Amino acid sequence: MQNIPNEQEQRGDTSRYETCLLAADDGGIATAARLLAQGHCVAFPTETVYGLGADATDGRAVAGVYAAKGRPAFNPLIAHVANMAMAESLVGMTPQARRLAEAFWPGPLTLVLPRHGEVSDLVTAGLDTLAVRVPAHPVAQALLTAIGRPVAAPSANPSGRISPTTAAHVMDGLSGRIAAVLDGGACAVGLESTILGFDDDIPVLLRPGGLAVERIEALLDRPVTLHEGSDITAPGQLTSHYAPRGALRLNVVEPDADEVLLRFGDGPSEWSLSASGDPVEAAANLFALLRKADATAQRIAVMPIPTQSLGAAINDRLTRAAAPQG
User: How many angstroms separate the CA atoms of 134 and 97, rounded?
Assistant: First the structure.
């Protein structure tokens, strides 16, 4: 709790903080809300991964998120809100979007919809749509309720690197560059949210994530179209993303001698994503095991993972993590 910035201190300077770790109790949540309201960047837990939050209505605060992460400004952010009413104050809800929100919020679903509320243009990267979601984590819910305004929050890690699922992961990547980390324990889902947009009335998957697309299709009783093209229309669409520092090789059955092998459905192991082959368990373990492997070896291999359920999102993250970094 030392060196928490006060209201008079300059905002947006990401080189001047001694980042404080806040307990996820009433006092810690109140402190985190105060810092956000004053324009500082605060990391907080969601059910998916830890997010790096800033007041979405404050352009200077949002700029601090881009600066702390080293994130390209053409890559939009998700506005996190406490409830449906706040979401409706920011975006135009279509009938299909409303059905999805009523079914899956709070939860790991982000909807990209026409914006009409007051958020900084930096949040949308200049687009006329806004990505918005209601997180399910009780600490995130309490924080968003306390601040009473939308919080723009990408994953709380240096841009392009492995996403954080614990407060320690956040501190490892961003300590000294943000005001505080609200420690709510390990994230249950472990993958970023599924992002869905609409082309007229056609649902379009912009990023697979913590909500399986099969559940969306079952609710809407129609197929979801996959996003095509190279334009960045939502967070998490960069070709190289979620990357470890070392080399990553996918769909490996027999690893090389110098590789750590992340296993799937291959029995108990220190490096098992899921010994039983459960994609939900594998998703929850993915980023933490990638980080552990990256600290252990210079080369990482991953066994094949089926694309059913959350397997599609896991393979999306691994493909981007293995892509050449430019």
Answer: 13
Q: Which amino acid is at 41?
A: C
Question: Do 293 and 271 touch, CB atoms closer than 8 A?
Answer: yes
What lies within 8 Å, CB to CB, of 85 at 6+ separation is: none
Tell which residue, 152, 141, 137, 128, has the closest CA to residue 36: 152
Contacts by 166-172, CB closer than 8 A, 24 or more apart: 166/50, 166/288, 167/21, 167/43, 167/45, 167/50, 169/50, 169/287, 169/288, 169/291, 170/43, 170/50, 170/52, 171/19, 171/21
CA distances to 13, 16, 155, 282 from 66, in Å: 11, 16, 11, 29
Helix (H) or strand (E) holding 206: strand 202-207
Q: What is the phi/psi pair of residue 220, to 5°?
A: -80, -15
What digits encode the pLDDT tens for the residues 109-146?
A: 999 999 998 899 999 988 999 999 999 999 999 999 99
> With helix as H, strand as E and coil as C, how does 162-180 read?
CCCCCHHHHHHHHCCCCCE
Cα–Cα nearest to 294, from 321, 267, 315: 321
Which stretches within 149-298 are classed as H helix? 167-174, 213-220, 279-296
Separation of alpha carbons 200 and 3, rounded Å: 49
pLDDT digits (tens, 9 = 90+) for 31-45: 999 999 999 999 999
Residue-level length of the chain: 326
Q: State the DSSP string of 13-39.
A: -TTS--PEEEESSHHHHHHHHHHHHTT
Nearest to 167 by CA among 176, 177, 157, 159: 157
pLDDT of residue 320: 87
